[in-house]
């Protein structure tokens, strides 16, 4: 069984000394100080994460965790649950948005069955099914504490293996019809917010379905009484297997001093669980984008993250995070590749 407490204790803050040295380097580059704005901040954070003033070239991967949700029986999504396994096959065939964007960003796509409610077998799929979908959270706990921990262990092991083969930045991705319901329930519980404030239309439900989704989440919280001070209890009772897997990816990456780019609302809910459990892990996170899904804004505010992109995305799969990889590459291209005033013979600021 995964020893989560020792992982939490092993996660170190990023290297403040190296951040300072990287800041000094930025001041020497041939541009007005601060003029590359957030690209400079990204470079500094990557320096602190990697412990190198000039961080190495990014080797990128997106981990797409797929799982089903028992709560779909309550009519909370615009699409049927069978879309989850169908999209897994689409990921493997290379036909989804995450495939197209990852190809363009030169990121490896790692697809994981952590709890899809049907038989899936394919050599390219990492088959680590914990159970056939969660139970219906409106009637009881989505999963046991042990299952949540097993799912966290899967994410932790996968990111550890990626690190060992040279990946140094990972994006969080997910697929699971019904998972905006789980993400809203987690957000309401962990941030102590009203369900209506953190619940949106997901794949595109109408007003009547949205009212039903809010009622169901309220019922799930009333039935399960998740303990806000215990993020793992909240995760098990009203979370999802793919969300738990991503918690493991985030904690494992932070322990290994790897950067993590968080995608939208569902990934954000996983980050909220991870950072509530281990506040230091936040140092390793970038918010790839701000999702249209209401509730995501509250998550990024609570985590004090500033999303890199605002493209009105509401897809998930890791798409917004992989798009943000281009900005991390750009930050390092300038930080590592530009000449200093001295090297280029350019005059520095007067006075
Ligand atoms: C074809 C298709 C591809 C997707 N890729 C990601 N999602 C996204 O939509 C789902 C969450 O929305 P809800 O809670 O409303 O079901 C997740 O699977 C998420 O990854 C998709 C959804 C669909 C239909
Ligand atoms: O922001 C997300 O991650 C999201 C939003 C809607 C549907 N699926 C995912």
From TrEMBL:
Encoding gene per record: cobT
Protein task: Catalyzes the synthesis of alpha-ribazole-5'-phosphate from nicotinate mononucleotide (NAMN) and 5,6-dimethylbenzimidazole (DMB).
Pathway info: Nucleoside biosynthesis; alpha-ribazole biosynthesis; alpha-ribazole from 5,6-dimethylbenzimidazole: step 1/2
Keywords assigned by UniProt, alphabetized: Cobalamin biosynthesis, Glycosyltransferase, Transferase
Organism: Tengunoibacter tsumagoiensis
Protein name according to UniProt: Nicotinate-nucleotide--dimethylbenzimidazole phosphoribosyltransferase
Molecular function per GO: nicotinate-nucleotide-dimethylbenzimidazole phosphoribosyltransferase activity
Top-level taxon of origin: Bacteria
InterPro entries, A to Z: Nict_dMeBzImd_PRibTrfase, Nict_dMeBzImd_PRibTrfase_bact, Nict_dMeBzImd_PRibTrfase_N, Nict_dMeBzImd_PRibTrfase_sf
Pfam families: DBI_PRT (PF02277)
Enzyme category, top tier: transferase
EC number(s) per entry: 2.4.2.21
Catalytic activity: 5,6-dimethylbenzimidazole + nicotinate beta-D-ribonucleotide = alpha-ribazole 5'-phosphate + nicotinate + H(+)
Annotated catalytic residues: 317
An individual GO BP term: cobalamin biosynthetic process
Stated family: Belongs to the CobT family.
Keyword Glycosyltransferase part of the UniProt annotation: yes
